[in-house]
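Please fill in the sequence for the structure shown.

STRUCTURE ENCODING:
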């Protein structure tokens, strides 16, 4: 397997993780487990972004580095819309609150609204990844 094939295999792995996290978020939301659902929504966008960067041969060791790269390399360059960058930030902050801040609660309506936006984010990254693979 050459280097490009390795990058694309890694990118495929991370996109599968993104899709899996989105499915898990839906299951958790259906069970009214909103905090864990919100956390999985964050991981869906994190893995999707990681997939695109992996396809480009870039890997980051910290969540904050991926967040910065989303804005620097994708939003500022116009690859993704600003609202998707803002969504990434909301999911990053919601995951921090859900996992580490006591007494944090999310309403079913709030999680449902974010889930719809995360689905749009994931679809956009599937498209971007397909374009990257075609190069």
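FILLED IN BY: designer on duty
SEQUENCE:
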């Amino acid at each position: 397997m050459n280097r490009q094939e390795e990058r694309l295999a890694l990118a495929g792995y991370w996109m599968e993780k993104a899709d899996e996290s989105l499915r898990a978020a839906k299951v958790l939301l259906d069970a009214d487990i909103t905090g864990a659902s919100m956390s999985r929504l964050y991981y869906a966008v994190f893995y999707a972004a990681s997939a695109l960067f992996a396809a480009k041969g870039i890997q980051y060791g910290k969540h904050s580095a991926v967040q910065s790269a989303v804005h620097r390399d994708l939003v500022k360059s116009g690859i993704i819309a600003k609202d998707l960058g803002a969504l990434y930030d909301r999911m990053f902050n919601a995951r921090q609150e859900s996992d580490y801040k006591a007494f944090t609660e999310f309403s079913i309506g709030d999680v449902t609204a974010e889930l719809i936006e995360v689905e749009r984010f994931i679809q956009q990254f599937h498209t971007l990844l397909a374009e990257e693979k075609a190069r």
